[in-house]
Design a protein that fits this description.
228 residues; alpha/beta; Rossmann fold; globular; binds adenosine monophosphate
Amino acid sequence: MRIILLGPPGAGKGTQAKLLKDNFKLSHISTGDLLRKAVADNMTIGKTVKGYMDKGDLVPDSLVVELLKEKLASKDTNGGFILDGFPRNVSQAEILDKAFKEKNLNIDYVIYLKADEPVIIQRLSGRRVCSKCQANFHVTNMPPKKKGICDNCGSSLYQRTDDQEEAIRNRLKVYLKETASLIGYYLNQKKLVEMDANFEAPVVFDKLKNVLSNSTKISLPGAFKERA
Ligand code: AMP
């Protein structure tokens, strides 16, 4: 199964991707994670992309595509994958379509996680990330057992620079300007499934599992909304 998770920052793409990965044994490909790793590892590409990322701007397509292609070429994606954070604009979607066509592959689902702005801002501004294992916490929605410390590995938690208010506002603007048009793009391809992602992660995931299990044997009639 090959799935794209689409939606604004803070809709829960990363969280749902991790749940899908564990439940469906898929590889989780997050371009944000690949880029953050390139920065952390001090790679040449990392030095170029950091400024864009800190402000919440999109990194140039050629750089993200380079990292993504490398990842897609690895064996661990053969059993299916979830793309989280890619594509982010129509030009990236076209590059992906072309690359898949050449390999005779296709995307099975594009899950559009829809969330309201106050929910998004609350989620992003309270997010804390482990500096070592990258596990995610939230100051109120999912606090660690010990304040500021990762439950999994005991390292310190930090707030991403782009989770500060000014960058969050910019990310939302960028989403509306660049990414939201992908809803129409995948609607035309009859691959879009819209889901209300304002609920807590386990509730959204239950509905997502239902959609994936119930729609595997029917052809998608265009965009359809998950049933309440
Ligand atoms: P994310 O972890 O998906 O929120 O991504 C964090 C940041 O990485 C974004 O704000 C962008 O600066 C950059 N980024 C991630 N994916 C892409 C992409 N597909 N195209 C351009 N920039 C990206």
